Amino acid sequence: LRARQLPEVLELMRVAEEFERAGSLEEAAEVYRDALAIDSLWVPAQSALVAVNTVIQNRRFDTLMSQGLSNLAQEDYDDAYEVFTRALVLRPNSRNALDGQTQAEQGQKLDQIMLVEARALAFELRELWELAIGQYRNALETDSSLAFAQQGLQRAQSRADLDLKLINIIENPDLLFNDRVLRDTESLLTDAHGISEAGPRLGEQVIELGRLVRLASTPIRVEIHSDEQTEVTVYRVGQLGKFRVRNLELRPGSYTVVGSRDGFVDVRQTLNVVPGRESSPIMVECVESI
After folding, report:
1. What is the CA 229 to chain-centroid distance, rounded?
2. Percent of the chain, pLDDT > 70?
3. Distance set, CA 32 to CA 27, 28, 198 (Å)
4. Is pLDDT of 217 > 80?
5. Whole-prediction pTM value?
6. Using an 8 Å Cβ cutoff, are 170 and 192 in contact?
7. Which among 105, 110, 160, 166 is least buried, having the fewest CB atoms inside 10 angstroms?
8. Facing residues of 151 across strands?
9. Does 227 have pLDDT greater than 90?
């Protein structure tokens, strides 16, 4: 039954991913729910729905946090307190929201160091990690013992490093064709999923990278034809022997196919398996005598 339903589920996944790319996350979530209504065990839909819902919730929270921090910067402490209270309804244990509420209560008691902290947290919430790092370094130049600046600098540097790694892979998806890089990326995604209060930028990066990992992990059917006289070997796969037709399921990437036959010149060709695209059949046969 699940096999018969698979085409419909895959079509819904495709539609949902288009909504994601267009920024229509609520619509995407609805379509992922439709896919799960058909096959509740479809792991890609489960993961995608969790990721999309996380981004939606993070955006709502981050909008309130940005508004509250903006009010703090303008010394509108009453308004800031109300906004941070609304943010705490969404995340009762949010450190940033609790800090913001405390700053609003303190009002005019805030000194220059606290203002630096507020600016740094605002940059963190907007995922402007280099600017946050600059604020924390400035605070530490004033007083190297400030715990919030020490912790914040470490946190911002860690997130800046993660951001650079995610950008590199998203902008160079062919890197995922390497088994080691794919494993490292899956580990990186696990780390990213474990970050609380991730922010919309990271959430969107996780969604996009998750999509790329799914594509890079999904085997593509490849049909190889030969003449039953040629020994066929696919590097990274193994020796296939002699045959007329052989079907393989290969992960996306580049493969070298070699044909050998006694008394004939070896043949070699490159097989490029492209994610999400059916590969054309290839012919491997030795025809040139030595």
Report:
1. 46
2. 98
3. 9, 6, 22
4. yes
5. 0.54
6. no
7. 105
8. none
9. yes
